[in-house]
Design goal:
By secondary structure, the protein is of the alpha/beta class. It has two domains: about 210 residues, Rossmann fold, CATH 3.40.50; about 100 residues. The chain is built from eight helices and 13 strands. The longest helix is centred in the N-terminal third of the chain and has 30 residues.
Length: about 325
């Protein structure tokens, strides 16, 4: 779709965006005045979300926060809606034996990389309750859920894509916004993923190693330098991943899939024998049919010590 056509479509969708804005505004107001109930819990809850749709880099930040608080000696649990998973009723405790098609890719990725209890439920309030009741938890981190006002929270963190920011500044479906940009004035921290901006905490995804999806073998970041590879990305902003590979000197043949795409073996069957490089989020959906030609780029969200100390002090 070219820019002119996209602009016309967005213009035609503006009335629906107006309705979405009014509904979201009134909904939040009803929670504020107590007409809708907000549930509070015996342990602190940190929400890591955003005000836009699409990938802003929340999940790596959730993983970094979980690992940080684990190092501080806290028993951490995570709740998630399980977007893209088939699980519908009640709570699902996610472990490495769960399929991504059931739990959703992000909960499985978090459980795999942190080894903490991850509870999936479309009702986040019930997810928190079940997590606390079934595990000894000191702290709950919600992967997304900034707009889930029924779930009480102690700290709100909103993640902003440093390059795309807020797109065209319009509400869904004409634009990416779920809430107005002014909402950021009310959160505790705004993390800028990939850039810097006044009043926001800068964070970057730092590549660490290439990991074989089939064997778990690790290779240094220069391992694929000057090689031609198939780059596979089913994430909200795939170009960010391809750019990371290019910066590492890799010659990338890009293959873009929809965000949360559920891969099959045929999707990754290519006529040549070039290595296949993917994101960690893609990797958890490919383990059942992985070959030794499949690798993922392990990355970590870089969060400053000052921010982590301030976050800890506010709990």
């Amino acid at each position: 779709m070219d820019l002119n056509t996209r602009g016309l479509v967005n213009y035609l969708l503006l009335p629906i965006s107006g309705v979405f804005y009014l509904l979201s505004t009134f909904r939040k107001f009803f929670y504020q005045i107590g007409l809708f109930t907000t549930h509070h819990f015996d342990v602190p809850v940190i929400v890591v979300g955003n005000i836009t749709v699409g990938g802003s880099g929340k999940t790596p930040i959730v993983i970094a926060l979980v690992n940080y608080f684990k190092q501080q000696g806290k028993q951490v649990g995570v709740v998630s809606r399980g977007y893209g998973g088939s699980h519908q009723q009640g709570s699902l405790l996610v472990d490495q034996n769960i399929k991504a098609s059931e739990s959703g890719d992000e909960p499985l990725l978090i459980a795999t990389q942190t080894q903490v209890a991850v509870m999936v439920n479309k009702d986040r309030v019930q997810a928190v309750k079940d997590l606390i009741n079934s595990h000894k938890i000191d702290l709950v981190i919600s992967d997304d859920g900034l707009q889930h006002y029924a779930m009480g929270r102690n700290i709100e963190i909103s993640v902003v894509d440093g390059k795309r920011r807020f797109g065209n500044g319009l509400f869904l479906p004409a634009g990416p916004l779920r809430e107005p940009v002014s909402r950021l004035k009310n959160v505790d921290f705004v993390i800028n993923n990939g850039a810097s901006n006044v009043g926001e905490i800068s964070s970057n995804l730092v590549p660490k190693a290439f990991v074989n999806v089939d064997t778990g073998e690790e290779k240094p970041l220069n391992f694929f330098k000057d090689q031609t590879v198939h780059g596979v990305a089913g994430i909200g902003h795939p170009q960010r991943f391809f750019d990371s590979l290019i910066e590492l000197g890799v010659n990338v043949l890009p293959h873009i899939f929809a965000d949360h795409y559920n891969y099959s073996q045929k999707d990754l069957e290519f006529s040549d024998n070039h290595p296949i490089l993917m994101t960690a989020k893609d990797c958890v959906k490919c383990k059942e049919f992985a070959t030794d030609q499949m690798w993922y780029l392990q990355v970590e969200a870089d969060l400053s010590d000052d921010f982590l100390k301030q976050l800890t002090n506010e709990l």
